[in-house]
Amino acid sequence: MSEGAGMREIVTYIFGLALLGNACLFVPQALAVWRKKSDEGVSLVTFGGFCILQVIGVVHGLYEHDNSLIVGLGASFLTCGTVTLLTIIYRLRRLRANASIPSA
Questions:
Q1: How many domains are there within the chain?
Q2: pTM, entire model
Q3: What angle do the packed helices 44-64 and 67-100 form, to 10 degrees?
């Protein structure tokens, strides 16, 4: 194995770990939304946009046979997608509750 190939393997491994770390960064937000049972302060555009980018990254990883992208961005999609889904659920509940309250 050449020195360049060895370095490439190291960088690939670190990149995969960094993507898994990225997935972990969404967990506190998911827990906060779930505990509060509220969408307050969560940008659906931001988290929805992250999800779209992650899906595109997974598809790219599939085409390129890049397991780091597939696993890392797949894990990020699961955690970010959880925030996005919870936000949608709680936002719809809030909007329905507000719509059922008669205005004075």
A1: 1
A2: 0.85
A3: 150
